[in-house]
Amino acid sequence: MGLIGLVLLGLFATKPLLETAIADDELTAASNRRKLILQSGVFPWLLGSILIIPFRVPPFDRAILPFLGGFPLIWTLLNAGRVKNVQVRENAINKKLAWAEVAALVGVFLCFRLVLAAGVPLYNLFYEPNADKPASRVYRFVNGLCFDGAAFVPKTFYAVEGILRFEYAGQVDTTIDLQNKFVTPPFAEAHNHHFSDTQDYRSQINLYLTQGIFYGKNPNNTSKWTAPIRPHLNTPASIDVVYANGGLTASGGHPIQIYDFIAQQGNFQGWTKAKMRSQAYFIVDNEQDLAAQWPRIKAGKPDFIKTYLEYSEEYGLRR
Predict the structure, then answer these.
(1) Exposed, middle or buried, 260 (CB in 10 Å: 0-12/13-18/19+)?
(2) Which domain holds residue 79?
(3) Is residue 208 a contact partner of residue 180, using CB atoms and an 8 Å limit?
(4) How far apart (Å, rounded) are the C-alpha atoms in residues 223 and 290?
(5) One-character DSSP codes across 156-214
(6) Do 177 and 264 sit in the same domain of this protein?
(7) Both 306 and 237 in a single domain?
(8) Within this chain, do residues 170 and 240 fall inside the same structural domain, yes or no?
(9) CB 135 within 8 A of CB 161
(10) Which residues lie closer than 8 Å to 304 by C-beta, 6 or more apart?
(11) I need a surface site. Which of 67, 114, 152, 226 has the fewest CB within 10 A?
(12) Which of 275, 217, 221, 274 is nearest to 246 (CA)?
């Protein structure tokens, strides 16, 4: 239905766009009408989509969305040669550039880039203010096959004040039949690099919750780019995540080469190889290096420390 709606929108827009012509001869021939649609619709759509790319907040692969937004103009172009009885309509657009509208558009771009880039927890608006308080209703779950650490066994369990229990002698508000489905505890992802470094944390939260993953552990990230994301995690509406920030490694060790490549590709705007050091990773070759780096490591408030010992048994040879 959405695709059909876009096609109809493109067909409906044909005549209004053609009426923006300056002279009647632009509307006489079918080729002239198609040329006008290219100039007044298709080309501005493509140019505008390109101009939006620098203002897109990461992930940058979503910069393709503006190009998809002009899809109806394809049908407008195809329909331009068949439209009849179109006349030039006087309008102010052809007289002068509308500076107020241009300023408003620039303002929208700047708002997205400077205000919304850090992320706004809009999904929290769908939860009640007291969502962090335990539920008052008592639920009983029957006919479920629960995992006991070795096998799935039939068990009845309860949700009392938001906590799962296998024994409860009080009043039950609702009984839910699980119909012999398998019941597992929530999963934990012990090594991932999500929820950090300008990523789309909202879609990642939804993905994790959908897959039953409630806990995540990120062993290497940049504290600067992760800081705007942290407030949206470890809440009843999201998942629990802990971070190591930059890992401790030796000169030339992993993951220096990865972050050097990221800096070279320009994936982190304004970040060079030099800036990656002591943020994306910390070089520690001896005790003196650790003592010098420790205040900065501690200032990032890591939840745990990640050390890279790759090929440490050949450290002397490789150095």
Answers:
(1) middle
(2) 2-117
(3) no
(4) 18
(5) EEEEETTEEES---S--SEEEE-TT-EE-PPEEESS---S-TT--HHHHHHHHHHTTEE
(6) no
(7) yes
(8) no
(9) yes
(10) 217, 219, 242, 243, 244
(11) 114
(12) 221
d(CA 99, CA 76): 27
Query: What pLDDT, on a 0 to 100 scale, did the predictor assign at position 127?
Result: 42
pLDDT of residue 145: 95
Candidates 153, 155, 152; CA nearest to 164 is 155
Look at residue 272 and tell me if it is in a domain.
Answer: yes
Angle at 75 between CA 69 and CA 77, to 5 degrees: 105
DSSP code of 23? S
Q: Do 192 and 276 share a domain, yes or no?
A: yes
Is 132 contained in some domain? no
Q: Which residues contact 79 (CB under 8 A, 6 or more apart)?
A: 10, 11, 14
CB 171 within 8 A of CB 138: yes
Tell me the CA distances in angstroms from 191 to 115, 127, 207, 210, one per residue in order: 31, 29, 16, 18
pLDDT of residue 217: 96
Residues of the chain with pLDDT under 50: 119-132, 134
pLDDT at position 117 is: 56
* Interatomic CA distance for residues 90 and 35, integer angstroms: 20
pLDDT number for residue 115: 67
- Is 311 found in the same domain as 207? yes
The pLDDT of residue 92 is 57
Q: For residue 130, is it within any domain? A: no
The DSSP code sequence of 113-152 is: IIISTT---GGGGGS-TTTTSPPSSEEEEEEEEEE-SSSE
Measured CA to CA, the distance from residue 214 to residue 300 in angstroms comes to 24
Is 199 inside any structural domain? yes
Is residue 254 located within the same domain as residue 299?
A: yes
Q: Is 232 found in the same domain as 276?
A: yes
Instruction: Look at residue 126 in the predicted model and tell me its pLDDT.
Output: 40
Residue 128: the pLDDT is 44
Tokens of 207: 């993905």
- Rounded distance, CA 76 to CA 15, Å? 9
